[in-house]
Design a protein that fits this description.
alpha/beta, Rossmann fold, seven-stranded mixed beta sheet, 6 helices
Length: 187
């Protein structure tokens, strides 16, 4: 069982994340991806950002945690959800956009490169991705989970030549300059 398949850990995460959402990230995405597009959210957790995305897009939520998926499905029985690992993203479906908010930091640099390769394959021509990361250059482990802080220049190099950089911005989530988002277009 994964850490986030334990209902106690799911509840603890929900309480910790209270008041944080990707509303501003979704607003940035809408500048580059037309309304009505099909979007996959990687690592939907409790579904807060999925709800914001659904106001603009046809969304498919995904998470590696069956617990998060079941919890969201109870509240939204008609939701389109998949159990996916953010590294391998094992689905044959195609999307216009892919979104994640502080999810890909659980991946090592090698795993992250593989995830971007898989995302590229799942995107339709001209597809757009938006991902946010913790900004830095170190790694921590908590409860067996990796938290990798990525430097901006590393991420820029990692996505070339498969993606074109449309937008990159440093922002504050907990403190000034602690976060970064990238908006990329499939090359």
């Amino acid at each position: 069982m994964g850490y986030y398949d334990d209902p106690k850990n799911i509840q603890q995460y929900i309480e910790m994340a209270e008041g944080f959402d990707g509303r501003e990230l979704v607003a940035a995405l809408t500048k580059h991806l037309p309304s009505g597009s099909e979007v996959l959210e990687l690592g939907m957790g409790p579904g807060v950002d999925l709800d914001h995305l659904s106001q603009h897009y046809q969304v498919t939520g995904s998470d590696i945690s069956q617990g998060f998926i079941e919890r969201y499905q109870e509240i939204h029985p008609d939701a389109n959800l998949l159990r996916l690992d953010a590294e391998t993203i094992q689905t044959t479906r195609k999307f216009d956009g892919i979104y994640s908010n502080k999810v890909l930091h659980h991946l090592s640099p090698h795993q992250l490169a593989g995830s971007f390769d898989k995302q590229h394959a799942l995107l339709r021509p001209g597809g757009i991705v938006l991902h946010s990361f913790w900004l830095g250059d170190h790694e921590e482990f908590m409860h067996g989970l990796r938290f990798r802080y990525y430097p901006e220049d590393f991420l820029h190099l990692l996505v070339k030549p498969k993606f074109l950089m449309l937008e990159s911005a440093v922002y504050a989530e907990l403190e000034a300059g602690d976060s970064l988002y990238l908006i990329l277009e499939k090359a």
